[in-house]
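Example record used in the benchmark description.
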Amino acid sequence: MPVATAAAVRAQIAAGETQPIYLLQGEDDVEKSALAHEFETLVDEGIRAFNVERVHAGDLSSGDKLAAAALSLIDAVRTLPMMAPRRIVLVFQADGLLIPKRESEAASRALDDLERMIKEPEVLTTLVFVAGSLDKRSRMYKLLAKQATLVECGAIESQGDAERWIRNRVSAAGVQIEPAGARLLAERGGTDVKRLRNDVERLLLFTLGQKTISLDDAREIAGPAALQDDWAMTNAIESGDAATAVRQLALMLDSGAPPEKILGQLGWLVRTKFPMLAPFGLRSAVDALFRTDLDLKRSAGDPRVLLERLVVELTTGRRGRTSGRL
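Model output (structure tokens):
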């Protein structure tokens, strides 16, 4: 079965076209729990009590407990939905159920029963296992890799993912955040999970005691926008887009990149790309690099202003590559 992103699974839920078995795995417990509960929306709220079952496997410390838990789960999965097209069974803390810590005859029988159920899934039930990082060498994991849709939770691939990640963590703290506030933090933090986590923790501390976090609150703690691509500036220069190049330069400086490092990157661009991209502007580009290097070393101006001027000159030289002049 395929490996899917959390966003792809949400699209399946929205379309009402889910697979029979899912394994939500990874260390991001908040994301796993939030995604698991979204499966409940497949059933109308008024009849969820009959068609949504939540199983907390917990610590199955003996073979008898494991066998009883496996039997109970199988019964829940095989039960037909009532007045609904499907039934949802959510298994939280599934690690101990899928990969028992202690081997015994009862545990082996329980695993055999689970394997048969997974090999022959109930088409009217969506079964969702929520687990940590399972041992990929185990028999049960290999079976799930064939029969289930595997979802690695916690990965942030877009601004939409980042906004949802922020809302989930704020909600887990018993607080709500205005959509504009979550959007601002996502725009500034990008897909950097570490930065997003730090921003949310600082925001919750800053707004301690509040029931709702506003856009103004988010503005108070939000830092500069995160740099998403170390080479976005040089790519913009290559394409002749001065506005984007200057904007990316600002992001690099705001994120703490030393001016000398940025100058080195621009030097690499001129040495390796300009002979083909802008042969007629190569000499002027080299002169501009040397002039900026000298100005930075003797503190002849604000480094930001000096680099902005250089970026604009290089972009202009790139655009004039066929004219015979800079």
